[in-house]
Amino acid sequence: MEPLEPLECCAPLAREPIDPAQAAGVARVFKALGDPVRLRILSIVASHASGEACVCDLTAAFDLSQPTISHHLKVLKDVGLLTSERRASWMYYRVVPERLAELSGLLAVPAAMTER
Amino acid sequence: MEPLEPLECCAPLAREPIDPAQAAGVARVFKALGDPVRLRILSIVASHASGEACVCDLTAAFDLSQPTISHHLKVLKDVGLLTSERRASWMYYRVVPERLAELSGLLAVPAAMTER
DNA sequence: CCCCGGAATCGATATCTGCCAATATAGATG
DNA sequence: CATCTATATTGGCAGATATCGATTCCGGGG
Questions:
Q1: pLDDT at residue B9 above 80?
Q2: Contact by Cβ (8 Å): A40, B20
Q3: Is A23 within 8 Å of chain B by CB?
Q4: Which helix (H) or strand (E) holds B90?
Q5: Is B15 exposed, middle or buried (0-12, 13-18, 19+ CB in 10 A)?
Q6: C-alpha of A60 from chain center
Q7: Which residues pair with A92 in a beta bridge?
Q8: Contact between the CB of B106 and strand C at under 7 Å
Q9: Do B39 and A47 touch (CB under 8 A)?
Q10: In this complex, do B113 and A39 lie within 8 Å of one another by their Cβ atoms?
Q11: Mean pLDDT throughout B78-85?
């Protein structure tokens, strides 16, 4: 599956019905978040003091095989939640804050809604 | 699968590594959002002027069978994103703004992160 | 009390997903 | 160039998921 390049959205879900094509793109990102291991990976990377984590940090944090971790990293990267960079022998992963912010905004509850 | 009752979280993912047990709960909710049809259903319900939509509104909006829509509604309801109420012959669905807000908060990007 | 219409549930099926073992790749290092 | 180490890719399997047609359930009216 090809990477999901640009940011795609737009108004909060609760504001107006999301366009079907946009929904498909957004759903891919949420689907990537819909796995406990990937959520934890994302959280570990995002909360690292240096802003990045190497794969070795991650394999150590789970009772899963290295290929499985690598697979999850690829999923997160393909939907634009992570980027990776090689330095020396190690791959370092970082979160893409814009992506997180975008999703956060999509789920935001308009003021008009809380008033009801 | 039993419904996911109480709100479960907590600090933004980018703040500290999420607890594995919490990750499992949160992942269920994101997985529910990880389908284009469910995303659209949620958006249609959430953006309805009255704050609710009946199943008939939804089946009309998709080229899918009524059981399929009903299934997706159940998934969204089980993770606490929707509630339903019967009035006369129709079932009305509403979003649970607290759930949306909770997810939005989880994905929020701490100020410390944007500064980097 | 029976029927009708809206909605949920059931059963089946095709597709997708997560996992691991094995293998491949790609820098670093001798 | 041979090798070692870190990570990615491949292949296969077991379990989950999306969908549909058929059926069931449940209020409301005759």
A1: no
A2: yes
A3: yes
A4: strand B90-95
A5: middle
A6: 20
A7: A54, A85
A8: no
A9: no
A10: no
A11: 97
